[in-house]
Amino acid sequence: LLFSVSNLCGKCRPRDTDLLQPSLNFLYWSLHQTTPCSQQRAVAVLLSNVSLLELLQKVLECTWLWSAPSEPAYLSPEDALLCSGWLLVSSLLLYQHRYNTEVHQTLSLDLTEVLNAVTFRKKKPILLLVSIMQFLRAVLRQNFSSSLLVIVGQNTAQGAMQRQPSSLQDAALHPLATHQVFSLVVSLQNLLVHKDLLLSQAIVACLETLVEYLYGKNQDVALHVASQPWHRFLLFTLLNGGQKSFLQPEVLRLMTLFLRYQSTNIISQKDISQILQEAAEANLAELPEATSHALHLFLCQV
User: Fold this and answer.
1) Which residue stretches of 218-288 are H helix?
2) In this model, does residue 155 exceed pLDDT 70?
């Protein structure tokens, strides 16, 4: 069935949303809802299908070609297809790396366009932003070195060496440019203010992966990003003023991130004490799973 559906997708055009969107969702869940042994076989089937990968290439490129709907909260059939495409490609990147699966056709994406889709979001629905961030996390975790993906963009190695005044930083962060990193961070900060739960979780996860990537490339840039004073304002914005306001998954994960990179100007000893006090007074058995997991990571970091 997986083989048949993937072949069917390869015969479609990006505009065939009624057929493609549920088909891509089926491929996505086939990868995630199966045993590890079957998962490895499923990845091999999908990555050996050249026509499917060519179709996915076209679908992703439609992200910056299709016009946005007038209402940003409205998820059009085209946007739903884009979400499915980005999530499927993210999963293929993850599992291709995990199983070292042979690649028969590479995907090529312009990094500038991908970052602009988040930075200049132009009324993109929240679910589409979340899907693109999932892709960004996948490529950052693999240091842009996936054999499935070819990254193109303006920040070539030669161009990075010629740029001033941050040329050395650009070379270290390649294929990212320093200005792209700061633009992305500012955009993620601005999106956090919307206080949408799904979006907040995706943003915090993307920030975690981005700072981890930067730390491996240039520690000064990573520590600079983690210690931005604006983060302090963000924390106050996310806190809803409730009795257990600190015990929110996204707040706890941000606090853990700032602790990990010793951003003492963002999180103080008083903040840590407040979280510990709220945790001590809470009924831990009744906390949501996401909160419990985030609290566990926070306590381990402390």
Assistant:
1) 219-226, 230-238, 249-260, 269-281
2) no
Q: Does the pLDDT at position 248 exceed 50?
A: yes
Q: What per-residue string of b and e applies to 115-133 under the rule 16 or more CB within 10 Å gives b?
A: bbbbbebeebbbbbbbbbb
CA nearest to 295, candidates 64, 277, 188: 277
What is the C-alpha separation between 261 and 295, in angstroms, rounded?
17
Q: How many helices (H) and strands (E) does the chain have?
A: 16, 2
Orientation of helix 269-281 relative to helix 289-301, angle to 10°: 140
Give pLDDT, residue 36.
85
**For the residues of 71-138, what is the DSSP string, one character each?**
STT---HHHHHHHHHHHHHHHHHHHHHHHT---SS-EEEEHHHHHHHHHT-TT--HHHHHHHHHHHHH
Closest to 255 (Cα-Cα) out of 242, 240, 236: 236
Q: How many CB atoms lie within 10 A of CB 6?
A: 24
pLDDT at 121 exceeding the cut of 80: no
How many other C-beta atoms can be found within 10 angstroms of the C-beta atom of residue 250? 24
| Nearest C-alpha neighbor of 280 from the set 299, 294, 293 | 299
pLDDT confidence band for 245 (50 / 70 / 90): confident
| Domain residue ranges in the chain | 1-153, 170-301
d(CA 210, CA 192): 16
Count of residues in the chain = 302
Q: Give dist(CA 163, CA 155) in Å, integer.
A: 9
Reading the block at residue 187, the tokens are 């955009």
- Rounded mean pLDDT of 145-149? 96
Evaluate whether 231 touches 265 at the Cβ level (below 8 Å).
no
Percent of the chain whose predicted confidence (pLDDT) is above 90: 73
Q: How far is the C-alpha of 215 from the C-alpha of 245, rounded, in Å?
A: 30
